[in-house]
Each structure stands twice: as structure tokens, then as C-alpha cells.
Amino acid sequence: MKKNMLIAIAFTLVAMFTFSITSEASSTKVMWGKTELKAGQIGKVTLYGDMGTFKVDGSRGKVLPAGGEYRVYSFRKDIFGGEYGLGGGLFVHMYGPLEYETPSKAKLALLNK
User: Which N-terminal residues, if any, form the signal peptide (predicted)?
Assistant: First the structure.
């Protein structure tokens, strides 16, 4: 009986320390402006006017409000200049009222730590 009790206490302690270490490691966020820098992100766009998004098939997506910052995961060239991929299948035209920025090497180093 005592042996089972000791095993249960040891298992509980190991589980507590394992979960606390995992939560600390996942709580380190690299903030870049208003957004969190994520793996696979190549830049961000800051919108200076309301902008409509669209999907790959040409259908309309949602309208993004001015002042928002959105992660950019891809870039495509097209006959109109180019498009920034915001993830989730949504794109915005690069010639709209927006500013595109890439993360600094210091921010990328923090992300890849």
C-alpha cells in the first residue's frame, strides 16, 4: 500500500514539473508591433485604409479595417503586380493603401532561439 502511494506521489510530481516547464517554454512570444512573430512568416502589412481580401479562386474574402497589422506568409506575382498571402487562403493586392515590412534579423534570431 505504501509503495503504491509513493509511486502515485512521484508520478504526480513528475507530471507537475513537466507541464510547468512546457508552459514556460510556450509562453515566450516574440512581439513585432501589434502582432506576434510566427514561424513561416515573411513579413507584415499595415493597412492605411479599409481593404478587401480575396481567395485563390477569385471569390471575395472579408474587409480588413484600417490600422490593422496582418502577418504575411507568401507573395505571388500576377498581371496586376502582386499579392500578399495572409494565411488561411486570403490575399490582398500589394498596390493598396498598405505598407509591407520584413522582420529584422534580431527578431528572427529571437524566434529561432
Answer: 1-25
